[in-house]
Amino acid sequence: MSQHLFIKSLPVVAMAMGNKMGVEVVMQGSQARTDGNTIYLPALPEGDKSLWILARGYIDHEAGHIRHTDFSHVGSTPIHRALTNILEDIRIELEMGGSYPGCAVNLRNLANHLAQEGAFTPEANRPEQLLPAWILTACRSRVLKQEALEPIARKARQELEGLLGPCLVGKIEKVLTGVKALQSTGQAATMAEEILQLLRQEQDAADKQQKNQAQEQKSEADGQSDQGQEGQCPPPSKLDGDSKQDASSGSPSFQDHDALSGSDRDGGEKANTASDPNPSRCRKALRKILDEDPGAFGDIGTHCAAKLSATSQNSEEHALTGIYPGETPAHELLSGPPPDLHQVRAETVGLRSRLTRLVQASRLKRSGAGRWGRLVDHRVLHRLPTSDPRIFRRKEERSAIHTAVLILLDRSGSMDGPRIGLAKKAVLALADALGTIPGVSVATAAFPGTDNRVVPLTRFGQSVARSKTGYGIGASGGTPLVPALGWARARMAVRRESRKIVLVATDGQPRNPATVKAMIRKLEAEGIEMMGLGILDNGVTGRYFRKNQTLKKLSELPETVFGMLRDALTEK
């Protein structure tokens, strides 16, 4: 797949997420974020494969949070929030990968990409980042099989053991063996608290030991300093047996990390003494881990959002094929009853009959005479004396119609008054008439909805009679035609019809005219036929659409649209 196709396919991915997972994805604007219900992506420029990796992984990651995370567990301290988020990220990504194997691939690619960019490498002299870095990379490489993170995990563990000692790191490691069994956000928060409790116990023991040593030095009493405090790791020279037990109880992957990091648990007193942490450094590191804020370190969602927002294009014209505005249900915008379908049919009866006759005529199999065949055409036997060999009957095969039509209704504030009433009736009549023609699939939608979204009215495969209630929407807002066309593009991308038509019923006053023209040309280049139906617009719609007509009253609809649709409903 060429690089520009990656971003071009994102709106289709966004649409599929909503259809299959029930997670709404919106692509427009310049910021990547989520509000716990909807995932927002900025409009992204084409040609950068790394943006595809970031965007695809971000969508799957945040979809996992929306589907599986209990957002009431916010954490009691900055480090607790950071560790809970790291463990919860692993839990929900494991869930998503189990339900949707493609997500596991996307998330693995994302983690590898972020690792190469240094997103999981802690800053120097920041132990409050070093601990999350080790937990994140070690657990991800073991549980999620993200092998690119293993070298970071080995290095982080080695540095952490130098600060806190192998005994404390081993205790934390033992807790982390249960990561794969986490079933809820609450359990992730509990595991994070268990890890912090180990750190607090070690901090208390170190503080007590420091106080005792100060008293001992003052009283010059010998021998008491060798008595360990409850909860404190024994001196390094006595760790051999316990270290072996901790290592054997952990996962094989973590044992491999120990071997590769150079920690020799069975090497005797000399090896352990070499890794004995400096008491002062250990106390300082524990204090920073427990008290300092690691910031957004380890927060994959925040990191991806920042990268996507930084590389997005504020101007839509540079990212026309990376737009998908999402949808607003029609019932949220109803302002009155819909047009009377029976009355609309009565006023546009000529449209239905003319389109039907056109299609029937185009599908007739006409017979003629040919030079070869199985049946003799008795009507032309008189040609034999003239040596004309065209005496066999042949039937001309006609291609069946295979067309998808999507009609967009402009419901902006400038359409208020007689325009919106005429436009709704026209769109209703068109959808009703086209829906009766074999081989033609039709859908309708209005724009704008909430936050530039699109309002589906009649979906493909749905009858107008069953969806007519949605046509009771009123007119309000601006005219964001570019997002509406982005929505139409994504919808048409999954249609299998050989011909695809987008017809826009509007007054010809869109926002960002230059961008609208660029978007229309882009869709035409992708094989979508673009048509404009001007509603009392004095021909303004013709500035944007090569194929266009102006509608002044409903009774003119058959004559107005017949010319535009005639070629589309016959053989191309």
Topology, please?
Blueprint: H1 3-21, E1 24-27, E2 33-34, E3 38-41, H2 49-68, H3 78-99, H4 101-116, H5 127-143, H6 150-164, H7 166-176, H8 185-219, H9 240-249, H10 252-261, H11 269-274, H12 279-291, H13 300-311, H14 341-347, H15 349-363, E4 367-370, E5 392-395, E6 403-410, H16 418-434, E7 440-447, E8 455-458, H17 464-467, H18 481-493, E9 499-506, H19 513-525, E10 528-535, E11 547-551, H20 557-566
Parallel strand pairs: 1-3, 6-7, 6-9, 9-10, 10-11
Antiparallel strand pairs: 2-3, 4-5, 7-8
Helix pairs in contact: 1-2, 1-18, 2-3, 2-4, 2-13, 3-4, 3-5, 3-8, 5-6, 5-12, 6-7, 6-10, 7-8, 7-9, 8-12, 15-20, 18-19
Number of strands: 11
Low-confidence stretches: 234-274
Largest sheet: 6 strands, mixed
Helix content: 40-55%
The best one-word shape is: elongated
Q: Approximately how much beta-strand content do the residues carry?
A: 5-15%
Number of domains: 3
Distance between the termini: 29 Å
- Alpha plus pi helix count: 20
Structural class: alpha/beta
What Rg do the Cα atoms give?
34 Å
Question: pLDDT average, as an integer?
Answer: 84
* Largest sheet: spatial strand order: 8-7-6-9-10-11
GO biological process, one term: cobalamin biosynthetic process
Domain VWFA: 404-572
Protein name: VWFA domain-containing protein
Biased composition (Basic and acidic residues): 255-269
